[in-house]
Amino acid sequence: MSVEPDLSVRLGGLALRNPVMTASGTFGSGREFADYVDLNRLGAIVTKGVSLQPWEGNASPRVAETASGMLNSIGLQNPGVEAFAAGDLVWLAEHAADTPVIVNVGGHSVEEYVAVISRLDTEDRVDAYEANISCPNLDRGGMAFGTDCASAAAVTRACRAATHKTLIVKLSPMSPTLARLHVRLRVREPTPSR
Predict the structure, then answer these.
(1) Across the 194 residues of the chain, what is the mean pLDDT of every consecutive 10-residue run?
(2) End-to-end CA distance of the chain
(3) What are the E-state strand segments in the chain?
(4) What percent of the chain is helix, strand and coil (3-state, nearest 5)?
């Protein structure tokens, strides 16, 4: 008799049956792959980006083949938080009831990130958030939140204050300040001394 190994892990306060998660933006919300992958065997589903209002995304062409793979620039196309809650979350409750859902959140301002999290925080099928700080900060001329330490800290701090659920911050690998960001993004309140 074979015994399956225990692959369970914790991601902040979130318990996962295994460390296998989908990458945001590559798996939709699971519906597109449900015929090929048993969603209830995944550690978590990380959804496509969700914004306060619908985003059309970038104009075509959006994908280009390269010698090393492919590049894409979809532009975070999504139907907005209300359509996501009414459609994708309902579908996930029916088809992936045993798999934690991590919602990738985007916005053009700190307030939009907070509004999306605030809207979704009471939804039973939302277990955690991934704040996508590669989004353009319209308050700062369209520069991505993740390219500036102050902007990255501000959006992370605001998202953390909006929920008690696990929060992941998705950094862009294209950020020239990435090395400084990982050091400065420590926004948790200090542990009180005894």
Answers:
(1) 89 95 90 94 96 86 85 80 97 96 94 97 96 71 72 93 95 65 50 48
(2) 51
(3) 9-11, 14-16, 45-50, 63-66, 69-72, 101-105, 128-132, 136-137, 143-144, 166-170
(4) 30, 20, 45
Instruction: State both tokens at 63.
Output: 């994908």
Residue 137 DSSP code: E
In one-letter notation, the amino acid at residue 128 is A
The answer to whether residue 159 is catalytic is no
Catalytic residue among 126, 131, 135, 168: 135
Q: What is the DSSP string of 128-139?
A: EEEEETTSEEGG
Cα Rg of the chain (Å, integer): 17
Instruction: Say which residue the tokens 């907070």 belong to.
Output: 114
**Residue closest to 122 by CA, chosen among 76, 164, 167, 150:** 164
CB-based burial label for 69 (10 Å; 0-12, 13-18, 19+): exposed
